[in-house]
Design goal:
With 300 residues, the protein is mainly alpha-helical. The chain has 14 helices and no strands. The chain is globular.
Length: 300
């Protein structure tokens, strides 16, 4: 015969009915709302110049300079798109090509030179490595105007005026880009490189076969920054590219404004066309740009 025992009343599990659902803090909601509002305002302020460029590019000069403000063109002037290419005084198509060549070659060369320098400073044991690194940082403190004239004299003596070599080679090394590469490589997993050395690879072999393939995000971020910088460069191409056939797009834009006439819609249309490559590059590489900058760190 089996007997059933009932636990004492004081041992019966009780449900705490007094527990209340967690409330969302009012301060966090207000903070999030304020953050979204501030971000939206910043985005609008950032897009205003682009809106003005497109608006004025599709207007006539009387509408641009008129007293009455117009948010949009009364009659969109699609014919303005072809005007920069039809202007006989400026070979705009050639200047776009020159900027593309300079931007791509400058980007590739800078990534190659600065990544090798940064990798050497971060990985190769050398008793003077820190001194070399501090010397590289010291170049960031030297104003560009100090080295401008000596660089021009050197390029001129080599016969590189009005050539791609004169536009590209003097700016291949960047102390800031070298610094970013060094900081990134300091945080790169050493285990991967050690495994490569076990397989018989040296520093250069580990760099090409292990480091570079696993650092494409950072390389893409640096490529974006370098390409935009090379495309927007103005002073050095203005001095080196003295012949109209060697003008880059920024130099070509400066020649649309003269002391006699200012063709506003032509300037804005040429500007809108000139920034399209940058917009495409940024939209295509923006994800890698954010990830690459986040991975640099400030180590060592």
């Amino acid at each position: 015969m089996t007997t059933t025992t009932t636990p004492p009343a004081d041992r019966v599990d009780r449900v705490d009915v007094s527990a209340k659902p967690r409330r969302v803090r009012t301060g966090s909601v207000i903070g999030s709302t304020g953050l979204y509002i501030a971000t939206g305002i910043a985005a609008v302020l950032f897009l205003i110049p682009f809106y003005l460029i497109v608006r004025n590019a599709l207007m006539t000069d009387p509408e641009i300079t008129g007293e009455e403000w117009k948010w949009f063109p009364t009659d969109i002037q699609w014919g303005n798109i072809s005007e920069p290419f039809d202007d006989p005084s400026v070979d705009f198509a050639r200047s776009l090509w020159n900027s593309a060549v300079v931007g791509v070659l400058h980007t590739v060369g800078t990534l190659l030179v600065c990544s090798l320098a940064g990798y050497g400073l971060a990985r190769i044991p050398y008793k003077h490595a820190n001194k070399v690194f501090y010397a590289v940082l010291g170049t960031l403190m030297v104003p560009t105007a100090v080295t401008f004239v000596p660089s021009f004299v050197l390029v001129s003596s080599l016969g590189w005026i009005d050539t791609y070599r004169g536009l590209i080679i003097p700016g291949l090394f960047s102390g800031f880009t070298c610094f970013l590469f060094r900081q990134y490589f300091l945080g790169f997993p050493k285990e991967l490189e050690e495994a490569a050395r076990v397989d018989g690879l040296g520093y250069m072999g580990a760099y090409w076969r292990v480091v570079v393939p696993n650092s494409l995000n950072f390389f893409a971020a640096m490529a974006t920054i370098t390409f935009i910088s090379g495309w927007n460069s103005f002073l050095w191409p203005l001095v080196i590219g003295q012949d109209p056939s060697a003008w880059t797009v920024q130099v070509a834009l400066s020649n649309y404004t003269t002391g006699q006439t200012v063709n506003f819609h032509l300037i804005f249309m040429a500007t809108a066309i000139s920034i399209l490559p940058l917009v495409f590059v940024f939209l295509f590489l923006q994800r890698w740009l954010v990830q690459g900058i986040a991975q640099t760190g400030i180590k060592g």
